[in-house]
């Protein structure tokens, strides 16, 4: 039986192992439905998706329409920039999810939330949806600290979704404590640091220290689901050894820690920034061959063509100096690539 916690003032009792539904986009319809049904059978009751996660909502709709719908909570998001687009997306999300209500309707990643309460903008569409009974609670999801603080301070959101992981800074974690103190639900995205961590043991033990944090683990494989179920059944304390490992990782990433969120895109010269920014780590943690393709090598070489337009820097919610980190990743990549070539692997 999975432990449940109260998600702030929503009063919803949600499982501390909850599920993020970005990765099911990569599964077939049948594969996604099977995974979601297994998650349901294990007792997971909160599923987070978004209108812009391609077919994720449709897969959830297929898995959970009918009797199962009342036994779970669904959170989805819109990131539209106008009232009309947001209202249309909310209705489409309901159709895709085969439901007539959302448990949490979230406003995702607006670049500017100044005076959002006075404007007839996306927030008003969320509010109108709630008044019409299409959403029980309203949430805010973002990667940017300043905007997240502004959303919390506005007092109009019931839940906040923000990245939290073993690699988070104290400043980032403090956002979760602020939510706890104000009785807002705190949903943690990027618990595996945007895919940089490949084993759930340490990330789980870290977040499990904080009962007010509800992580939505992005799950794609049955083995990943089963690992979190095992970890929840016999939770380990966050040990000194785990702490030392986390410190090592933090040092390794330094001030170039890219979470892979992709908000720096698009790059006018077409660089796949969210991959190139983490390419050295991806080589070390996964099969190097996947990164040593002629296409990836060409991307790496095109880093030299950066026009320094500033788009990536201006849009990175973590204020990363993207062109500088790209050059560091390029140097690291070339070193590993030469070693790989010499090794004849
Ligand atoms: S600064 Fe360079 S890497 Fe960044 S978006 Fe512009 S061209 Fe692309
Ligand atoms: S550079 Fe910044 S915006 Fe781009 S993927 Fe990394 S963390 Fe996200």
Please tell me about this protein's structure.
The protein contains 14 helices and ten strands. Strands 3-4-5-6-7-8-9-10 form an eight-stranded parallel β-barrel, surrounded by four helices. It has a two-stranded antiparallel sheet with strand order 1-2. With 345 residues, it is α/β, with parallel strands linked by helices. It has two domains: 4-246, NADP-dependent oxidoreductase domain (TIM Barrel); 258-343, no CATH class. It has helices at residues 29-42, 56-64, 83-97, 122-131, 145-154, 170-181, 201-207, 222-233, 240-253, 273-276, 279-285, 294-302, 311-315, 322-343; strands spanning 4-6, 13-15, 18-20, 46-48, 73-78, 102-108, 135-141, 159-163, 185-189, 213-218. Helix 2 (56-64) links the parallel strand 4 and strand 5 (73-78). The site of one iron/sulfur cluster has 13 residues, from helix 13 and helix 14.
What does this entry show, briefly?
With 345 residues, this protein is α/β, with parallel strands linked by helices. Helices cover 43% and strands 14% of the residues. The longest helix has 22 residues, at 322-343.
């Amino acid at each position: 039986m999975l432990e449940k916690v109260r998600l702030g003032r929503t009063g919803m009792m949600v499982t501390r192992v909850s599920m993020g539904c970005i990765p099911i986009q990569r599964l077939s319809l049948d594969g996604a439905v099977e995974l979601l049904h297994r998650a349901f059978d294990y007792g997971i009751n909160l599923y987070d998706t978004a209108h812009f996660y391609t077919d994720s909502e449709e897969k959830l709709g297929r898995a959970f329409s009918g009797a199962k719908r009342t036994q779970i909570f669904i959170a989805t998001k819109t990131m539209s920039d106008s009232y009309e687009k947001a209202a249309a997306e909310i209705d489409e999300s309901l159709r895709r999810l085969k439901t007539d209500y959302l448990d949490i309707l979230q406003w995702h990643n607006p670049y500017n939330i100044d005076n959002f309460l006075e404007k007839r903008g996306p927030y008003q569409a969320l509010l109108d949806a709630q008044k019409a009974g299409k959403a029980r609670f309203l949430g805010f999801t973002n990667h940017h600290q300043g905007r997240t603080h502004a959303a919390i301070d506005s007092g109009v959101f019931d839940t906040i979704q923000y990245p939290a992981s073993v690699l988070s800074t104290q400043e980032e974690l403090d956002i979760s404590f602020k939510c706890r103190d104000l009785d807002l639900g705190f949903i943690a995205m990027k618990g595996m640091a945007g895919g940089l961590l490949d084993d759930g043991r340490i990330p789980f033990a870290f977040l499990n220290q904080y009962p007010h944090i509800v992580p939505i683990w992005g799950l794609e494989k049955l083995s990943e689901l089963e690992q979190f179920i095992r970890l929840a059944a016999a939770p380990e304390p966050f040990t000194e050894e785990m702490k030392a490992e986390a410190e090592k990782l933090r040092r390794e990433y330094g001030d170039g820690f890219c979470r892979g969120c992709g908000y720096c895109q698009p790059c006018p010269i077409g660089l796949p920034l969210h991959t190139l920014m983490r390419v050295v780590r991806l080589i070390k943690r996964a099969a190097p061959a996947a990164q040593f393709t002629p296409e990836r090598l060409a991307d790496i070489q095109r880093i030299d063509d950066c026009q320094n337009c500033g788009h990536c820097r201006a849009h990175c919610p973590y204020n990363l100096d993207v062109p500088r980190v790209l050059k560091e990743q390029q140097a690291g990549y070339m070193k590993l690539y030469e070693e790989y070539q010499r090794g004849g692997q």
